[in-house]
Amino acid sequence: MIFYYGLSCEGTKQRNVTETELRIIQIYLFKSNKSRKNSLIIQTDAPKNKIRTCLRNGYSLSLLSMDCGIKNIVNNLQEMGYIVRILYAPNGKFDKIKRFSCKEKYNLADYDMKYVLYHEKVVMELYNKVFCQNLKNPKSLTLEILEGTANQLGIFAIEINQFCILTDDATRFSLGYRDFRKIVNYYGYRIYRKTTASGDECYRFVFSEKLWEHYN
């Protein structure tokens, strides 16, 4: 058993963890273009869902600067009570990064919600089904509310023509493949299965103009 320390704003926290509980992960920072040199590599015992929560909640702060993004990620995980060791950060020795083999990777840009308006109707349909609501895209629906709704559903990797939902989140919300097809076919989306860089399965929704024309 090895002794580690995690620091938080509440002071020093002391935990006993085994080496097998700690794993090395890589986080591509905002505007890194998936460059290893502009990524953060840490060793942590935080579970995957907590890491995603941290990235999702701290995305806006990362826009200020790369340093703000790093501090936010590290501080948030530590405040949750997890161990965090920084193994590599931007402006560090690039040759050092070659020592680490990271099988679990995350992209901070996946939590950018700037394109969520392109999927407004589908997001609201999913929200209505999951939370048994009957929202019909009211005029009072602001971008901030829509972003919050997408975050509640665990939507990520939003682009102009596509977005993703983890299969684990779909299961948590009691959404199956058939549920998705009933909702998205009407809006012209195709559904694919893919594996994320963190090693998790997800559904990828891709808009198809031909499919949309077929149903409309």
Please describe what this structure looks like:
There is one protein chain. With 216 residues, the chain is α+β, with helices and mostly antiparallel strands. 35% of the residues lie in helices and 27% in strands. The chain has helices at 48-62, 66-79, 94-97, 120-131, 143-152, 167-172, 177-184, 209-215; strands at 2-8, 11-17, 23-28, 39-44, 84-88, 104-107, 155-159, 162-166, 189-195, 201-207. A hairpin with a 2-residue loop joins β1 and β2. The longest helix is centred in the N-terminal third of the chain and has 15 residues, at 48-62. It starts with a strand and ends with a helix. The model is unreliable at 1-14 (pLDDT under 50).
Task: Compose a concise summary of this entry.
The chain has 8 helices and 10 strands. By secondary structure, it is α+β, with helices and mostly antiparallel strands.
**Helices and strands: which structural class?**
alpha+beta
Cα separation of the termini: 62 Å
- Indicate the low-confidence ranges by residue numbers: 1-14
Radius of gyration: 19 Å
Walk across the major sheet and give the strand order.
Answer: 5-4-3-6
Q: Give the topology string: H per helix, E per strand.
A: EEEEHHEHEHHEEHHEEH
What percentage of amino acids are in beta strands?
25-35%
> How many DSSP-defined strands?
10
Count of helix runs: 8
Helix content: 25-40%
The shape is elongated
